[in-house]
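Journal club prep — side note

Before the paper discussion, L.F. wants everyone to see what a predicted structure for a comparable chain looks like in token form. Sequence:
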Amino acid sequence: MAITDWPVDERPREKLMRFGPQALTEAELLAIFLRTGIQGITAVDLARQLLNQFGSLKALLQADQKKFCESPGLGPAKYALLQSVLEMANRYVLEDLKQQEALTSVSKTREFLQYKLRGYQHEVFACLFLDTRHRVIVFEELFHGTIDGASVYPRELAKRALQHNAAALILAHNHPSGETTPSRQDKQLTERLQQSMNMFEIRILDHFVIGDGQAYSFAEHGLI
């Protein structure tokens, strides 16, 4: 049975318009993105198959182009559309952070950093540069490494902070393993970076470790 033959309240698009996106299942949300199914399969059934194939919505959204385009019902056009949607969401969240009078919301900061760093299969070290009122100047990914770690250079971090005329920093890096508990090396690095930034009177406000689940905040645990 085609989706157009379903009761109105069960059709994903109409259900979203009436009850909001939070009322839809992951398969229904994905079906709206797909727009159409394939021969003999509705968009919702195709969405369910894709979620089962990839294992989760997160895995599907993070799939590389080759793996994504090899799946039934997908292809280069859908991949380009997905990447544009993800980038718009990314810019929306960053703009929301920038419009705050001061970056005081740990939850919004955590949400943004998780969105930016969670999908990488290798370690990435990034930084939010803030002005004297703790408003966001810019977000930058500074160092990329292997799955085992990234080499972080205090001199380069200080150079970027001075170029942006930043007064404060929020650091973040991901653990591809998914574990958010900071390692001994993470703690030592944070201390070393704090000492380096103190020379320039630049404060490090927090350091987030991104993995599966809620990101770990050094500040919330009294480590900064």
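L.F.'s comment for the group: The chain has a mean pLDDT of 87. Keep this in mind when we get to the figures.
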